[in-house]
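lol so apparently i was supposed to do this last week
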Amino acid sequence: MRIIAIANQKGGVGKTTTALALAAGLSEKGYKVLGVDTDPQCNFSSTSRVKVSGVPTTINLLLKDAESEEAIQQSPSGYDVIAGSNALSAAEKMITETGREHRLEEALQGIKEKYDYLILDTPPTLGILTICAFTAADSIIIPTLASFYAAAGINELSHSVEQLKHYNINPNLIIDGILLTKFDPRTIVGRKMKEITEQIGEHIDTKVFNTVIRSSVAVDSAQVMKTSIFEYDKNTTVAKDYMAFIDELLKGYEKDGVKKD
Ligand SMILES: Nc1ncnc2c1ncn2[C@@H]1O[C@H](COP(=O)(O)OP(=O)(O)OP(=O)(O)O)[C@@H](O)[C@H]1O
Ligand SMILES: [Mg+2]
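anyway here it is w/ adenosine-5'-triphosphate bound
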C-alpha cells in the first residue's frame, strides 16, 4: 500500500490530470486504487463521475463527522473515490486545533489497507488541505510546466516537505520526482526548459522523470466527456505518455525496494 500526493501550489500545472491518469492507469493494470479529492474545486471528483453533494466527502472526514467507509464511491473509470466538495474551502477556518495536519491520515487509517494505491489530488495552495495530504502521504509527485517561473514554487514546496520532516509530522515523506506536463519537445525552448527543470530538481535533490507528458487537446476532450484519457483513446500521445510515466514510476518503486504490502 502506498499513498501518493499530487501537488504543486501553482495552479493549472496538470495535478488533477495526473491524479486522474494515475488512478485510471493503475486500476487498469489491476491495482486497487482509491482517489481522494482534497481540492474545493472538485475537478478530480467530477471527472471521475462521482457525487460531490448529498454524500459524505473529504471535509466530513477532516471534521470527523463521517466514517471514511461511508464516503467511498465507485467511479465508472474503475477506481474508488472519496469526493471533494466546495465546503473544503472553509477547512482552514473550521479545523483549528493542534494536530490538525493529521486529520486526513487518521481518517484513512481504517480503509487504506484495502487498496494498493491511494492517490491524493490537492489544491493549488500550500494551506492546510495540502499539508493534510502531505502528512498522510508516503510520497509526492510534483507536476510542473516547463517554465522559468517553476523554480520558486518547487523550492517552496520542498521547504514545506522539509518542515514536515523536521517537526516529525511525517518524517519519512519523500518526493518521488518532478513530472513535466503540457510539454512541447519539438521546440528548442522545450528542450532547454527540460534542462532547467533538471537543475531545479538537483537543487532539491529530486529527480525529473524521464517521461514527459506532451501537450494534447485530448486532455480537454476527455475532461469534457468525463472519461479517463485511456477510455477516451488509449492511442493518443498523452495516454501513451501517462502509461509510460506509470511504468517508470512503478519501476522506480521496485528498484527502491518499496514493496506493496
Ligand atoms: N498534457 C496536457 N495537454 C493539454 N492540456 C492539458 C494537459 N494537462 C492538463 N491540461 C489542461 O490544463 C488545464 C489544467 O490542468 P489540471 O486541471 O490538471 O491542472 P491542476 O494543476 O490540477 O489545476 P488546479 O491548480 O486548478 O487544480 C486543464 O484545462 C487541462 O485540461
Ligand atoms: Mg486540480
